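Objective 1b: paired records.
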Amino acid sequence: MALDQAYFDAISIDLVKKKYYNANKVEAVLEDIKRQALLLNRENELLGRQLYALHGQKDEIGDTLLSAKTIAQQIIADAQTQAEKILTEAKRLSREMTAEAERNCREANAEAEAQRREMPQRLGELEQRLRVQLLGMMEDLSGELRSFSETETPAADEAGAEAEAAPADLSDKVDAIARELEAIGTED
């Protein structure tokens, strides 16, 4: 039972013959009040110690929270600094890679353009060499045909005029091809 207004209102001591209180009852009530007061005092002291401990813990929690907040701010600042460094490095590498790619592209385009410009000349040189070779071959073939027609073979006696007509006809065709090749060479 706690010492409160209801407790005190519940105390009733009978008056003995309407003049005096019963001493035993008064002593019992006072003893009960004393016991309740001691309990309340001990409870109050216990609560005071707990409150003091909680205030200490509150201070520790506050200090810890403040330290954690400071550390978190430092971590965030460090992370932002690191992110800025990484971003700066990435931008630098990107610029370098872009510049190198553009340089490689220009070099490749210049090389392709040079090859494109050289191609007609190279083709002309190749065509000229082929013409010279063909003309040489035609001259060699024509010479061989002439030498063939000038030499007599034993079969020529038997075949007669037919053997001589074939080489002459072939010689005419070779000469015609040579003239056409020369005409192609002069057109270019």
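Objective 1b, second protein:
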Amino acid sequence: MMQNNMQSMNQNQAACPPAQALSDQERALDLLCHEKATLSTLTTMVAEAANPALRQVLNDAYLQVGQDQYALFQQMQQKGWYEVKPAQDQDIQAACQKFQQMKCQLS
């Protein structure tokens, strides 16, 4: 039985090629995804922190991660690894108006 398992493992290893190292682009995209997830988590943590000192520490961390994420995004964009379609002026204006309306409704 043990020998059959060993043979099966050897066959599986032969059928599956070894994992290849990630490219710089793949690593950068992975890091960017982690930065976005960290920002999302920190947003929740800041909103739920009751202790003012802890809230400040978390807010500072949020700002730093946001800056790091944006710097990475800019580098990826410069290398052509992350393409963003520019927004039309009318779309930007519509989004600003919608935000302003929401802000007024909440006031």
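Residues 54 and 70 are 24 Å apart (CA to CA). Residues 52-78 form the longest helix (27 residues).
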